Amino acid sequence: MKMKTLIALAATALFLTNLTAQTTEISDAIINWKGSKITSDAHVGTIEISQGSLSFDGDALVGGSFTVDMNSIVCTDLNESYGAKLVGHLKSDDFFAVADHPEAILNIKNAVRTADGYTVTGDFTIRGITNSETFDLKIDGNRATADLEIDRSKYGVKYASGSFFKNLGDKVINDELELSVSFNF
């Protein structure tokens, strides 16, 4: 009787293990960013995803997490000297307070399959402030891409924001930070 119970428990454990989500690490990940003023003036650059994974139940995305290295931010549209000044300002307390918050995090909470990927809802944490965001994640084979906008004002990034300061004229920096994300899995 004990042997039958052990075999039944082992078979059940094996069956349940196959029902749990499988986690896949990502690679070749990059975020292209664009920040702009209310005028046509804008800056672009990159920032690295230092680690990330997706969780699947069969072939369905059910979760995931990503960590962004805020110290890796680079400006690609300015020369080295001016780019370094902009990056220094972006890392300062005026923007992302990187000394106190060296990482930004996304934890996927829900993924609904679409024709070309998923509509993903996740918790973003930037500057220690967490907000729910929804975006489309496109899948092509083992390559994933997403284009999304993050409202920086929701994360306490107030510098030259029309949401916090009036009478800035053409010095207003748009609250929407445009992100284009891509990675392999």
Keywords summarizing the entry:
185 residues, 9 strands, eight-stranded antiparallel barrel, 16% helix, single chain, Lipocalin
- Sheet bearing the most strands, described? 8 strands, antiparallel, barrel
Q: What proportion strand?
A: over 45%
CATH superfamily: Lipid/polyisoprenoid-binding, YceI-like
Lateral strand order in the biggest sheet: 2-3-4-5-6-7-8-9
Tell me the CATH topology. Answer: Lipocalin
**What's the β-strand tally?**
9
Radius of gyration: 21 Å
Give the overall average pLDDT.
92
Helix content: 10-25%
Number of helices: 2
Secondary structural class: alpha+beta
Give the total of domains.
Answer: 1
The low-pLDDT segments are: 8-18
SSE pattern = HEEEEHEEEEE
Q: What is the end-to-end distance?
A: 46 Å
Question: What is the CATH C-level name?
Answer: Mainly Beta
What CATH architecture do you see? Beta Barrel
Shape: elongated
Describe it for me?
The protein is an alpha+beta fold and 185 residues long. The chain has one domain: Lipocalin (Beta Barrel), CATH 2.40.128.110. Helix content is 16%, strand content 53%. It contains 2 helices and 9 strands; from the N terminus they run αββββαβββββ. An 8-stranded antiparallel β-barrel has the order 2-3-4-5-6-7-8-9.
